[in-house]
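Folding Problem: From Residues to Backbone Shape
Fields: amino acid sequence; protein backbone structure tokens
RECORD BEGINS BELOW THIS LINE
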Amino acid sequence: MTTRMLVPIDESTWSQAALDTAIDLAQRARLPVSLHLLHVVNVTTIQGRLVEDLSALLGLEPVLVPQKVAALYRARGQALLDAALARAAHAGVSATATLDQGAVVDCIVKHGNPADLVVMGSRGDTEQRFPGQGGGTADRILRRGHFPTLITTDRAIQLRRVALAYDGSVGADLALALCLRLASLVELEVVALHIAPSPPQPDPLAPALARLTEAGVVVHARHATGEARDALPAQALAAGCDVLALGHRGHAALKDIFLGRTTEWLVGGVNLGLLVAR
């Protein structure tokens, strides 16, 4: 069975790191991988400068621009895709590409839903050009998409040693299943993490350890105390992992809106790759 992998790309450092990560995964894969690159031209066309100026002022997405301006954006996007395809080919990885136009989140969700894994940067070119602006794109995609997502930092990730946040919940079981699926694709070592105020009995990591061991995956157990959003990345880094796998619970309950969910807080908030299961 072919693993379908989507990589949204733009001109940012984070996006290029995501592309390198996806190429590395495809090179190491024991099974066929279909790599598909996507660039979204975040504009829609209309005649007249007034509407263009107003849309930019109001922060509308996609930005309304004249047709000639949209054509320039599309040409730049196609050149970006061509360069990415050349990088994949140079690495011996076969890839295809799509140039789409519209709202970035809408387009990525549309193309991502058929994929087995979306590999993307935690930030994009808007954040790179204008620090502090345009944030939250990765989080909005996680909320709306129904696909597993590997979110990279500003450097490429070699998915070889993954920390799995596990507490026996539905989201944790989804993250465990995703780790098992990736372990069938590439050689993978897992560090199962459990964070609690005090060491629980019986060991909540036991089901995860058993399933991973049965599948032939090298796995280690690690218990720690503290707040999950602080302790999980700290323990993952201490265990030599550059990726943290965890589940995403979808729409927040009222209490989560105020407290903030762990996954959403971690996106873009830590120098650590995130493997998010849905």
